[in-house]
Specification:
Layout lengths: L7 E11 L2 E7 L12 E4 L2 E10 L4 E7 L1 H6 L10 E6 L18 E11 L2 E7 L13 E4 L2 E8 L5 E5 L1 H6 L10 E6 L1 H10 L8
Antiparallel strand pairs: 1-2, 1-6, 2-5, 3-4, 3-6, 4-5, 7-8, 7-12, 8-11, 9-10, 9-12, 10-11
Length: about 210
């Protein structure tokens, strides 16, 4: 369980394909003693398990593995050496919940349509997969590359917009985005269950 509040931006040091898995080695600013073997860390919206670790130049480096399904259904398949990654360690009992409940389970990959300045902030328009568009509601929550954001507007064509304050822009990888970039999307869990209860996502014919 996560909050969508990024606590570090890591860098992919290695991406190795081995035995049907892809192993990513990530450099972070987390202290080595704070990283446990088997711990869950969210990587730009994807929950992955630590399988190796060591002391790095600015903190701990750690390795995580992704299966082909994860690579196909997220943007992780596009990561190479040098890629910047939003990181968040999992919630502990008693931690402050400052964003919204994020599970690290990507629902789909969206596309950045536009990024427009609004004073000191930015308004980003995102095109989600058509089957996910109904889950984004004005003033609702969404996780974009693991960042908890409020939906500023849900547009009639299915796109949605988020407003990003300068602090979030500076301390996450959102500043790396440009029109055409692909992003991991996780819909708000509340929207998911409401849709199920009212039958909005029921299989056809039911």
């Amino acid at each position: 369980m996560f909050t969508g509040l990024v606590t570090d931006v890591g860098t992919v040091r290695k991406a190795e394909h081995r035995n049907g898995l892809t192993r990513f080695e990530v450099e972070s600013g987390y202290p080595l003693e704070d990283i446990a073997m088997g711990a869950s860390i969210m990587h730009s919206g994807v929950c992955l398990t630590v399988v190796d670790k060591g002391q790095g130049e600015r903190g701990a480096w750690f390795s995580v593995e992704a299966v082909p399904e994860t690579l196909a259904k997220t943007v992780l398949g596009e990561w190479n050496e040098g890629a910047r990654v939003n990181l968040e360690q999992s919630l502990k009992l008693g931690d402050e919940l400052g964003g919204h409940f994020v599970f690290g389970h990507v629902d789909g990959v969206g596309e950045i349509v536009s990024i427009e300045p609004e004073g000191q902030s930015r308004r980003i328009t995102i095109r989600p997969p058509a089957d996910l568009a109904k889950y984004f509601a004005t003033k609702g929550s969404a996780a974009v590359n693991g960042v908890s954001l409020t939906v500023a507007d849900a547009l009639p064509n299915g796109d949605f917009q988020v407003a990003v304050i300068p602090h979030t822009w500076e301390v996450t990888t959102l500043a790396d985005l440009q029109p055409g970039s692909r992003v991991n999307l996780e819909i708000d869990m509340l929207a998911r269950y409401v849709a199920r209860m009212i039958g909005a996502d029921a299989p056809e014919g039911q």
